[in-house]
Records
---
Amino acid sequence: MHGLAAVYKKELQDQLSSYRFVILFALIAMVSFITSYMAAVHLRENLETLSATRFPFLMLFSTPGVMFSMIQFVAFFGPLIGIVSGFDAINRERSQGTLIKVIAQPVYRDAVINGKFLAGVTTVALMFTAILLVISGFGLAVVGVVPGVEEILRLFIYLVVSIFYIAFWLALSILFSILFKSMATSALASVALWIFLSFFVSLGAEVAADMLVPIDRKNESTPEEVLRHVHVQEAVSLFSPMVLYSNATATIIDPMRKTTRSFVLMGPLEELLSARFRNPLTLGQSLLIVLPHMLALVAITVICFAISYTIFMLQEVRT
């Protein structure tokens, strides 16, 4: 792919030097710091609970602040970073007439889209790595808890999953920038799909569960019916990338969480054993639980970018 390094370097410089990146980074960092500060103050006020926890440093990212935790904030508003970074990646070049000039140079067409996508992923990775490190140092100063090796590894996995999560929305916004000539249309389509996949899919999952496995909320339904109802609702909600990301990261950050499901049917003996042996999961066990969710995030990211790549390679470039 001749010219990939040149396109990647140029796009990365444009991303990091743009006012859009500065404003977006400042906004995300400000909200993250406020959320983490409120969580750190809450943890410092409950030192007895903190001392009884084997992984207290991870609670800095999972404990809700004013409204939500760091994990919830990235799940809800992280897609906007990918959308803002890529909604005008191709159609802006077309409208300015620079795309045909770039391809006229000794630069292959696939190097253009590959360089733009890699530059966007690098920008997202730099942004989240910086915020994660600053919040970690901030938590050390406020709470005074030093993270262990397993906590650092869990935070690293959380960072990787977050990058793939944002990369999916970046690839999606690049796809719309290829399909639509107008930058406003591509941005509107990206935001509309984000709202649909993040919010309306959960509502549709509840409707689908009521239709396929209806339960009587006035009279007592059997536990098996309630369990089937919940399983159908959770299965449909997995079509939302936000649900995939939230379940995966919540299980990675919280070692006490034994499953990604919100409802588990247990008998009396199982409840007794669960109450007596409440030990945290090891990192390997947590990875086994969330591995399907992580693979699904990677798969939809690769598929979305592959569609963008194919359409861009088949499109005609006009002056």
---
Amino acid sequence: MATILLTLGRLPKALDLARGFALAGHRVVVAEPFGRHLAGASRHVARRITVPPPVNGAGPYLDALAEAARREGADLVVPVSEEVLHVAALRPRLPPATRLLAMPPALILAVHHKGAFVEAASAMGLPVPDTAALGSEAAAALAEAGDVVVKPAHSCAGQGVRVIRRGEALPRETSAHIVQRFLPGAEFSTCSLAREGEVLGTTVYRGIRFSGSVAIAFERVDHPAIEAWVTRFARETRWSGFLSFDFREDARGLAHAIECNPRTTSGLHFFRAEDIAPAILDGRKLRHRDERELQQFYSMLTEAQNGMFRRGFFARLRECGARPDVTWNRADPLPFLTMTWTAWPIIRAAMRHRATFGEVAMRDLAWNGAAPEAGSPEAPGNLERQHHLDRGVREAI
């Protein structure tokens, strides 16, 4: 039996991982900035540990995770979501026998940078949209030629994304942003697990219903071209760990990767729980669940209630029961039944700031592009000051 330390517990993805490792007989510990959280209600979690949020400083956050790993005798540390951008720097602080399921910080941060990622994929010959740094002559030329998307170089949950129509003035920003050619076709997302460049499983899915820009109901689809794209990128970078992308098709139906998320996404829910631990620990292949559509019930219900006085309310309300919920499990019901209580810190903040659940859930985790303190073992260099391919990517490929 191994001890697995998950570095987040508030999201349904953490619950999938906890259940998967526990089903294989392993002990699961969750370290989280929130005192209560979704995964913590599961009977599959042996212990919950509260750590300071990384937004208040990477040093104290990493020190707390390292101490939790030592105290609990963790054999493996598994980042769950956006906190991987910080947790990737944990390796020098861990005991020698403790593994970390993350690539080196320079590579993690480089592919998360939307401009550096496009350059890396383009160098591999993979389809990506034309992209340039906001404020450059190349960005101005893109905006003159057609519609473009402007977004922060580091962002999550679709925050700060704007579509600028052809001929309109580009915005002025003080932080690093990129300008990307707008692709008019269908949008897809992926979630993969790789081991030393070999993809063990990929889910390609699309959002069916959304809260803001975050999908709360999704459908798994077959898209061989996207799967081949992911396989090539993982092989070129010799990736180990979770790896996800967002894609859009152009007018001809060719899929382009518009950004990389070096972490899990909601596509994780489509993998069979019993396959998760053998895949991560032993390199076995992942299989998909039989269900093609899944949803987050409470988010669907909230969106329906928000439209109570609009046309179609009752149809949206009925739809809340149309698909399996990602958290419900008859053998482990408490996470679903207590979700309003465990998620209350996020719900309260969402109401106070008039923001979506997905946006608020990432605020204390999101990477802002600032480099760690000089001389620290996790310092990869300040990616906000560069709009070209990061050295870590060059070394990887």
